[in-house]
Design brief:
Rossmann fold; single chain; alpha/beta; about 750 residues; Immunoglobulin-like; six-stranded mixed sheet; binds beta-D-glucopyranose
């Protein structure tokens, strides 16, 4: 790596965590706008619609006809999925030197959780509750991706996900708007850096706008039915937060909300994004999401699609070609105005200029991958994303002189450990748990017996060997989960139990009579209640990426202390979905121990007296609540105090409490602050996360932790869709998960 790159990298990794909004390119905004107008004045209508056209590249015999000639004609504005650097530079050269106006191409790719060095899936990164780390990870991904000419990533995904049946929950930051927005904004800062023209910066893309995560029944691409206030209070805040961090592009979602597909939703794209939020980057469709409006029954043909999307304010079409085919005709017919086209092109050119593409269009001579720094960051991220769910008798951490039986289909699954959307990750580089024992923890005695070849494997032929291996060892480490392909786009599930015969394998291992440590590598929170009985300790690792295996043993051997917390509610049964901590109360909230199936007398008479809202079979509660996660230390919250009992609408409140590590070793606790607005003009959630902090404490140490909440942080959108803080009484809680009990009340005055 060149000295300059090293310096830039270090600067970005270590300083970016405190960065504010992206500073734009070396050109001033005035200069950029002048250049945009200059270009626009020279462009033909066809060249304009060319800028609005994004195609997915494939290198076949048709490359001349499909890509090179259209490029010369100025008919392509952006390409995604150009995997080869030489080809990328060749395509760019044609755009720059052989097209009439020489407007450079913008190359995009899904850099979702790393480019070569793969970080934990975003859901795992959310479990770190560590925005600075997510920012540094995104920066490392940008360094690698940028070194092969990629200038734009389709990330972060900000879809609030309350339903683990939806495979794309893996790509999300989970169920909470505040956590999602905080992590999303951090990633935007990481991708975009201090300056978009920086040699290591990528433009970020906030997706999927909007509401996609609420797909009915968790079935991908499905309709959503999100009423306006819920949309404002839950689904949109992460987008607003990440836009404030300077995100340059936004992607529309596949779903129709209440009948309107996002790619033609002018309320979202114009009223909200442009007029209210003052967004001045550009909007891209999702992959063929425009054309799919025909299947939705919203547009009658391709021409109608182009008309609807252009007039709704969608600037660039991904893959389907309705803009390039029909927009010129629609303009001539007066169905789409030239002003609409010009505005879209302005938005696109502005971003290209901000990225410094005109000055620096090509990929650099040398690619960067797997630097010590990025591997170190990926290891840290994998450590922090693991959530300790159980640790009976403090079996963990283990001493390094024990003999381990390493078992399970994910104990050595170099491809699957990387998780969904890791196109460019290389499994040869994956440090699986097995490789960690072979290369790093080489002094540890172990025997490896997979038991099952892969997560869906139905062949129990090796269970006896796995059990024998456990019997012959001091402790079994069983790594279960999901193959990468079982979560992610279009991979919804209607059962969330570990697939195949993994649960049976775990039981067989347990029957050997040795302590069992279960680790789960998965893209979603699986229903593992049954497995808890067969495991003495459980570490939930999500898909942890390149360094996941060594991070797992860092935790198992106590070189690191677990600090991850669940970014989603973990269900007992799939039938509980959707279940999330920040729900509204019903008129009949369930009591602590509601009547369950076995308590109902025979031939009980029908009655609604005393009935409450819960499931007779799986009860009221999830398996683990949002925010939950154990540590090898123990933490106590005490002495909660507020700076005032009552604040005005312009005031803020200082919340302080003592956090003590009552354990025997140093640890980090993610302290969480929740609030409830007791009476609202629309019913308010039972709790909402309003702040969190990672607090590091030595054994026995106490610290005073402070949060500040402004009255403005308590604002919400009521049925009039105006954002306001309503006066009245509030309860706040501080603690280590969303069931925190230490609380105090305060009032916001009229
Ligand atoms: C996904 C997007 C992704 C795009 C480009 C679509 O299928 O929904 O999230 O960015 O493809 O690969």
């Amino acid at each position: 790596m060149k000295i300059k790159s090293i310096l830039t990298f270090l600067l970005s990794v270590f300083c970016l965590s405190v960065s504010a909004q992206t500073v734009y390119s070396a050109r001033s905004e005035a200069d950029i706008n002048m250049k945009v107008e200059e270009l626009l004045a020279k462009m033909t209508l066809e060249e304009k619609t060319g800028q609005m056209n994004q195609l997915s590249f494939y290198d076949g015999k048709d490359v001349e006809k499909q890509f090179l000639q259209p490029l010369r004609n100025g008919a392509i504005g952006s390409l995604l999925n150009v995997e080869n650097v030489e080809m990328l530079n060749r395509l760019q050269k044609i755009a720059v030197e052989e097209s009439r106006l020489g407007i450079p191409l913008l190359f995009g790719r899904d850099i979702i959780h790393g480019y070569r060095t793969i970080f934990p899936v975003p859901l795992g990164q959310a479990a770190t509750f560590d925005p600075a780390l997510a920012e540094a990870g995104a920066r490392a991904a940008a360094v690698e991706a940028r070194s092969v000419g990629i200038r734009w990533t389709f990330a972060p995904m900000l879809d609030i996900s309350r339903d683990p049946r939806w495979g794309r929950i893996a790509e999300s930051f989970g169920e909470d708007p505040y956590l999602g927005g905080t992590m999303g904004a951090a990633m935007v800062r990481g991708f975009q850096g201090y300056s978009l023209t920086d040699e290591n910066s990528l433009a970020a893309c906030l997706k999927h706008f909007a509401g996609y995560g609420a797909a009915e029944g968790g079935r991908d691409y499905n309709s959503t039915n999100i009423p306006p206030a819920l949309m404002r209070n839950v689904y949109l805040p992460p987008f607003e937060m990440a836009l404030k961090a300077g995100a340059q592009t936004v992607m529309t979602s596949f779903n129709d909300n209440d009948g309107i597909p996002s790619s033609a939703n002018s309320y979202l794209l114009k009223d909200l994004l442009r007029n209210e939020w003052k967004f001045d980057g550009f909007v891209v469709s999702d992959w063929a999401s425009m054309d799919e409006m025909i299947a939705h029954g919203f547009a009658k043909d391709g021409k109608h699609v182009a008309e609807l999307s252009a007039n709704a304010g969608l600037d660039m079409e991904m893959v389907s070609r309705t803009y390039i085919r029909f927009l010129p005709e629609l303009v001539r017919e007066g169905k789409v105005s030239m002003e609409t086209i010009d505005n879209a092109v302005r938005n696109i050119l502005r971003v290209k200029l901000r990225l410094g593409l005109f000055e620096n269009p090509y990929a650099p001579a040398q690619s960067i991958a797997y630097t010590d720094e990025s591997l170190k960051l990926a290891r840290r991220a994998a450590v922090e994303s693991a959530v300790l769910l159980k640790n009976a008798g403090n079996i963990l951490p283990l001493k390094e002189d024990v003999k381990i039986a390493l078992i399970g289909p994910m104990a050595h699954a170099p491809h699957d450990q990387l998780g969904t959307w890791s196109f460019d990750g290389e499994k040869e580089k994956t440090v699986t748990p097995l490789r960690a024992l072979q290369t790093e923890y080489t002094h540890v005695k172990y025997v490896y017996e997979a038991g099952l070849a892969y997560s869906r494997d139905l062949n129990a032929g090796n269970f006896a060997k796995a059990k024998a291996a456990a019997a012959d060892a001091d402790v079994a480490v069983v790594v279960l989960g999901e193959e990468a392909i079982l979560s992610g786009e279009a991979h919804s599930l209607s059962s969330l139990n570990p697939v195949g015969r993994q649960s049976e394998l775990l039981s067989a291992v347990k029957s050997a009579g040795k302590p069992v440590i279960m680790a789960v590598m998965a893209g979603r929170p699986l229903t593992i209640e049954r497995n808890l009985h067969d495991a003495d300790a459980v570490l939930y690792c999500f898909h942890p990426g390149t360094m996941g295996g060594v991070a797992l043993f860092d935790l198992i051997f106590g070189k690191e202390n677990p600090s991850g917390k669940l970014p989603v509610t973990m269900l007992r049964e799939v039938g509980q979905a959707p279940m999330y901590y920040n729900h509204n109360n019903t008129g009949r909230p369930a009591p602590d121990n509601p009547v369950t199936l076995e308590h109902i007398p025979l031939e009980a008479g029908q009655t609604s007296l005393g009935n409450t809202s819960y499931y007779l079979d799986s009860g009221r509660d999830p398996l683990f609540p949002f925010g939950y996660g154990l540590s090898y230390s123990a933490f106590e919250y005490s002495d909660l105090s507020l700076s005032a009992n009552s604040i005005s609408k312009t005031d803020s409140l200082k919340v302080s409490f003592t956090l003590t590590n009552t354990g025997k070793i140093k640890g980090v606790e993610v302290a969480q602050l929740y609030v409830r607005d007791l009476v609202g003009s629309i019913a308010r959630p039972v709790r909402e996360l309003k702040g969190f902090q990672r607090v590091s404490l030595d054994a026995g140490q106490s610290k005073t932790v402070e949060f500040r909440i402004a009255a403005n942080d308590l604002a919400f959108y009521g049925s009039d869709l105006k954002r306001k803080t309503e006066p009245g009484e509030f309860t706040l809680w501080v603690g280590g998960n969303s069931n925190a009990t230490l609380n105090a009340n305060f009032t916001v005055e009229e």
